[in-house]
Write a structure and sequence with these properties.
Layout: E1 16-20, H1 25-32, E2 38-39, H2 52-63, E3 71-75, E4 94-98, H3 100-110, H4 127-134, E5 142-147, H5 152-163, H6 171-183
Parallel strand pairs: 2-4, 3-5
Antiparallel strand pairs: 1-5, 3-4
Helix pairs in contact: 2-3, 5-6
């Protein structure tokens, strides 16, 4: 017999969740990383594996009102206002942990690099549609979950917990990140 109490939770919990309008997506990253920078392509993330056809399909999904896939997961050790550990091993950088393909699809659509519904660019839409798409309740809104993990090993564990069972991740990708995690310092250990 198993109980929900027997299931280990994810590493940490998002310390902040925010709904961001489509047109503010890139600006949100800039605003929250002004002082410390940001990393949309950390070493543990897989490369840009979505084709333009997959990017188009995801944006079309959002424009049709689809809700799945709107959450992007970030980490910033200094994001939590009550302070950070002095002995942490992560830089202050805002890091995209999960959602690079989705973030890229939406931002490229908004800059007319991805087409939808038979070749239409963002600029092909009328002004009312653009306003509706870009609003905080519009079709391109995304949800930002920001963790404030302090250690690289914890960050890599979170990534692995979220992606090990995912069909979309090749076992070699998971093994590569597991090797990176195994090289990272264990929180509290002096190496």
């Amino acid at each position: 017999m198993i109980s929900l109490d027997d299931i280990p939770p994810y590493i940490g919990a998002a310390s902040h969740t925010e709904c961001v309008s489509g047109r503010r997506l890139a600006g949100w990253v800039q605003d929250h990383a002004e002082n410390d920078g940001y990393d949309l392509d950390p070493d543990f993330q897989r490369g840009h594996v979505w084709t333009d056809a997959l990017r188009s399909a995801f944006v079309e999904h959002l424009l049709r009102g689809g809700m799945h896939g709107r959450t992007l997961v970030w980490n910033s050790p200094t994001y939590e206002p009550h302070g950070t550990l002095r002995h942490r091993d992560l830089p202050d950088t805002l890091v995209l942990v999960d959602g690079k393909q989705r973030y890229t699809a939406v931002t490229r659509f908004l800059t007319n690099e991805v087409t939808v519904f038979g070749g239409h660019l963002y600029d092909d839409f009328d002004d009312d549609s653009k306003q509706q798409m870009g609003s905080a309740t519009g079709q391109l809104r995304m949800f930002m979950n920001v963790h404030s993990l302090q250690f690289r090993r914890e960050l890599l564990d979170l990534y692995l917990q979220m992606n090990e069972g995912a069909v979309a991740h090749d076992p070699a990708e998971i093994a590569r990140v597991r090797a990176l995690r195994d090289q990272a310092a264990v929180p509290g250990d002096e190496r």
